[in-house]
Specification:
Blueprint: E1 9-13, E2 20-24, E3 36-41, E4 44-54, E5 68-71, H1 74-84, H2 87-100, E6 106-113, E7 119-126, H3 135-144, E8 149-154, H4 157-164, H5 176-179, H6 189-194, H7 201-204, H8 219-227, E9 235-238, E10 241-249, E11 254-259, E12 263-268, E13 273-274, H9 275-286
Parallel strand pairs: 7-8
Antiparallel strand pairs: 1-2, 1-4, 3-4, 3-5, 6-7, 9-10, 9-13, 10-11, 11-12
Length: about 300
C-alpha cells in the first residue's frame, strides 16, 4: 500500500511583522514566496503573503491543516485596499463614541476589516487590569456599521506599541516590535541583572511601559560566559600573584582583579585560575594518600607501607 503523499504546507503572514500560520496548499503546488493567497481564518476570510515553504511539516495538534482557498486576484487586492481605506474612519467614530460614553480608561488603537468586509475588528487597550463593560459601545458600533459583524478585541501594551510604531528608546528609527519581532518573549528583571544593566526604570523600560524586549537578545551569551568565569569576590591566581575578583566582563571573557600592592588589573579567562582549586591540587600533590583508606596508593590508612 502506497504511503500518502506529503502535503504541501506553506507559512502565511497577514501583516509585515506578524506571526506565520501554516496552511495546506496541496491544490496550489506552484505557489512561491511572496504570492498573496486567500485563506479562511477564525476572523473571517483574509489575504496573506506566503512567507515560508515548509519542507518537513509537523502535524498540528488537531491533526488537520486549514486549506489555502486560492491565489489572490487583482480584484481581491483592490477589495482589500477599499476596506482598508475605511479603517481610519471606523477608529475615529469609535473613539468619539467611547468619549460620549465616558470610557476614560479605554484606548481605541486601530480597526481591521477582513478583506471582503464581512467582519470588523476594533482593537482597544485599557489602563487598568479590571474588566471593562463595552457592551454598549459594541452595540452602537454594530448599528453604525450594520453591513458587517463587529468585534471588540482587547490587546496588550506591547501590541499597542507594535501597531503605533515610532522611534525606539535606543534611538533606532523603528522599534524592534514594529520592525522584526513576530512574538513577544517573556522578559524578567533577572535578565537585566545578569547583564549588569542599571535597574533604573528609564533604562530597562520600553515605550510600552514593559521591560524592553532587547533584554533577552544577549542574555544567553551572558549566562554561558559567566558560567566559565569566577564570580565577584572570589580569590584567583594570576600571572602577577593572587588577588580578588572585583568585576566580571562576560562578553570579553575577562575579569578585573585587585592585587595586593599592585592595584586593579584585567586578566582573560586563560590567565587566571581559582585559588581554591589550585590549593586543593597542591594538597593532593603533596599528600597522595589523602584518600579514604589509602585506596589507589602503596600505603595503608595510617600512612605506613602496606604489607607484601
Amino acid at each position: 500500500m502506497e504511503a500518502s503523499a506529503q502535503p504541501f504546507i506553506v507559512g502565511v503572514r497577514f501583516s509585515k511583522v506578524g506571526k506565520i500560520y501554516h496552511f495546506d496548499a496541496s491544490q496550489l503546488q506552484d505557489l512561491k514566496l511572496g504570492d498573496v493567497v486567500v485563506v479562511e481564518t477564525s476572523r473571517g476570510w483574509q489575504l496573506g503573503e506566503v512567507a515560508h515553504l515548509v519542507s518537513d511539516p509537523t502535524p498540528p495538534p488537531d491533526g488537520v491543516w486549514k486549506q489555502v482557498d486560492r491565489r489572490a486576484t487583482p480584484r481581491d487586492l483592490l477589495l482589500r485596499q477599499t476596506w482598508q481605506q475605511r479603517e481610519v474612519e471606523v477608529m475615529v467614530s469609535c473613539r468619539a463614541r467611547a468619549a460620549e460614553l465616558r470610557l476614560d480608561g479605554v484606548k481605541i488603537v486601530a480597526s481591521e476589516y477582513s478583506f471582503d468586509g464581512t467582519r470588523l475588528s476594533i482593537l482597544f487597550s485599557t489602563e487598568s487590569e479590571e474588566k471593562v463593560d463595552l457592551k454598549s459601545l459594541r452595540q452602537d458600533m454594530q448599528r453604525l456599521y450594520n453591513h458587517t459583524q463587529v468585534e471588540l478585541r482587547q490587546i496588550g501594551p506591547r501590541d499597542v506599541a507594535k501597531i503605533i510604531g515610532g522611534m525606539g528608546a535606543c534611538g533606532l528609527e523603528s522599534r524592534c516590535c514594529s520592525k522584526f519581532l513576530t512574538d513577544f518573549s517573556s522578559i524578567s528583571i533577572r535578565m537585566a541583572k545578569e547583564q549588569g544593566i542599571s535597574l533604573t526604570p528609564s533604562e530597562i523600560t520600553g515605550m510600552c511601559g514593559r521591560l524592553r524586549c532587547c533584554l533577552i537578545y544577549e542574555y544567553e551569551q551572558y549566562v554561558t560566559a559567566r558560567q566559565e568565569l569566577p564570580k565577584k569576590n572570589k580569590r584567583v591566581v594570576t600571572p602577577q600573584g593572587e588577588g580578588k575578583v572585583i568585576d566580571v566582563y562576560p562578553l570579553r571573557e575577562a575579569v578585573l582583579v585587585e592585587l595586593p600592592e599592585v592595584g586593579y588589573r584585567e586578566f582573560t579567562k586563560a590567565e587566571i585560575q581559582p585559588a581554591e582549586e589550585l590549593e586543593n591540587f597542591q594538597k593532593k600533590a603533596q599528600n597522595p594518600c589523602s584518600g579514604p583508606g589509602g585506596e589507589g596508593c602503596a600505603c595503608g590508612k595510617d600512612g605506613a607501607p602496606k604489607a607484601e
